Amino acid sequence: MKMKRRMLLSVVALLCVGFWTKAAFAAAVNIKLAHGGSLEHQYHIGAMEFKRLVEEASNKEIEVTIFPQGQLGGERELAESVRMGTVEIGELAASNMAGFVPELQVFGIPFLFTGKNAVYSVLDGEIGAELNGYMLNKGFVNLGYWEVGFRNMTNNVRPIKKPEDAKGLKIRVQESKIWIEFMKALGAVATPIPFGELYSALQQKVTDGEENPIATIYSMKYYEVQKYVSMTAHTYEPALVIVNQQWFEGLDPKYQAILKDAAIKTATLQRVKLAELEKERLEIIRKAGVEIEENPDHAAFAELTKDLYKVISDTVPEELVMRIRDAIAKAQ
């Protein structure tokens, strides 16, 4: 009887040791990072780099689990999940946050942000911090500005070399006022379609075309169902790395610092990586039989849309637009 009791106690002790050993090595913080891109998308390149940096810096006290390809919902749903605190980090295009933070429609103003290095200096400086403040007022902490890229037009009907070439085309845009007005200015028909449904919409000819950076056109395979690409570079789109404010402020300060530092380092690394990949991906798109218009009439597009920012002056202060314009000009 005594021997059985000793054996039972030994088994219990071993189980306890195993439990506490496992607990000792468990992460103190588990983070879900979600995005809607493919495994080749800019979002995923950034997410993988961020995960590596965070887990290394924290000695795996923080573990990051990535949910790509819209597994946790489209970008609007993802932003809502972050706001509710059911997803810790969401990575999504700034324009798709405009429903929550109207000031972010500034990224839809055509030809406001020009030149990559100039854009980076503005977003990583005082103006980027100001935009972060708008997000914070709505309960979101933006850890950094990663890259989606300069947006270009694609379609299945004809090459777009000048603004009038877009007339009558159904072009998919994000669901925000500035994007819809941009297409109206070109004489095109703005067609809001969720990002996750865009490939099938192009394939089924629900819409004639769309507009996205080359990296997105490549990674989401839109070039498989489009005939023409025009390198209009009409707007620049950053990827926001948003977290729930209440959740973030409840973290140990050392963990907050690790997440912020990793996000900033990821921005630099992801931008460099995408620059390296763009020429290669553009050539793949060309070899797939897509006609690429490399020199559309940028001046004509810019002139036609130069006052378009006024249609959103009720939500995007004109003074902010002018400061961005000046800052970009000085940085170039």
Automatic annotation (TrEMBL):
Gene Ontology CC annotation, any one: outer membrane-bounded periplasmic space
Keyword annotations of the record: Receptor, Signal, Transport
Signal sequence residues: 1-26
A GO biological-process term: transmembrane transport
Pfam families in the record: DctP
Domain of life: Bacteria
Homology family: Belongs to the bacterial solute-binding protein 7 family.
NCBIfam families linked to this entry: dctP, TRAP_S1
Record protein name field: Tripartite ATP-independent periplasmic transporter solute receptor, DctP family
Organism: Fretibacterium fastidiosum
